[in-house]
Every structure is written in structure tokens, then in C-alpha cells.
Specification:
The chain is an alpha+beta fold. The chain contains 3 helices and 10 strands; from the N terminus they run E-E-E-E-E-E-E-E-E-E-H-H-H.
Amino acid sequence: MSAPMPFLIGLTRTPEPVRFGSLIVSRAWKYDGTPHWVVPGFYLGADEHGHWLHQPAGSLVARPGTAHLALTDALCLIPHHGFWVATLYSDQADDFDVYIDLATSIGWHQLRRGGWEVNSVDMDLDVIRSRTRGTFLDDEDEFEEHALKMNYPEELQRQMRETSASLIAKVAENLPPFTDSHRQIWLAKVAELPR
């Protein structure tokens, strides 16, 4: 179920031990190989759910044609298994609490001059927990459009639908790792990051 991009084939889902505080560049692509979002962060550690990154307020968040500086701190969770990447926001003033990008071809590789890059192919669908609108699935229209335009395989479409349904249930039930208490464990490590 990998996307047709040779530069993503063979990337490991399990990186070598990553040093605390290492630069991690999260790079997303679209299924047709076009670049999507790029967000830098810093490695906090791993638990049974996956690898946790801190993406500080003020970080450059960019994709072709647009960019902005992150308004608030966030945590990014790259799971050990599964077809998604999650961003968990730390500021109660932000309407987004949890934002999960459905993704495939998730893999890590070391950068030549230190740090790591984690790549993924964004599959359009997003599971969102909003402080004002509750938990919902977003961008179903984009998923349907791209499934035709980019020729998503039937099996990949099925996997994304199943994954989104499972994630909606977990997020709506406030199960780990999407709880505030679990998030606070990792946010507490941010103070230990090198300045």
C-alpha cells in the first residue's frame, strides 16, 4: 500500500535510537508526489504509542505557496504502527485540541548533518477534536476527489476509511494517547530541551 514515490520506499518505521532534543523535520507529501506540509520539531522520546515531538510556537510551518509561524506549542505523535500522524495542541485558546492526518508510507531517515526527517503521504482525511465543534471527520470531499484524480487503490481507500472510523471512536471516547493527562506527561519534558 505504498505510494508511487521511489524516494519514500524502504524508509524505516522504527528509527535507530534518537537523541533527546534532536531536530526532527516532519515532511508530508501528497499521493501524486507533490510536496505538502513541512514542520520542524524536537525529539522528546517514545512510549507504547509512538515517537513524540515538540513543535514550538514560532516554528515555520510551510507548504508550496503558503507558510506561517505556529501560534502555539504542539506535540506531534508519530505512531509505531498505523496509518496516521497526530498533532495535539497545548493551548486551551486554540480551537483545535487534536488533529490527526490520515497517512501512509510513514518512514524515518537520518539527515546528513544531524537530526532526522520523518516522511508521510497525506491521505486527505483528518480526524479532528475541536473545542467548539466536537469530534468529526474532515475533508471527505477532498479524499473522494483525490481518490479519482490520483488513482488511490481500492485497498488503500478501505484502509483509510477503517482507520478514520477507529480514530474517531478513540478520540471521541478520550482514550490515550489523546487525553490531556497523557499530553501533559510529554509537555513536561519540553522544559528539559536544550536551549
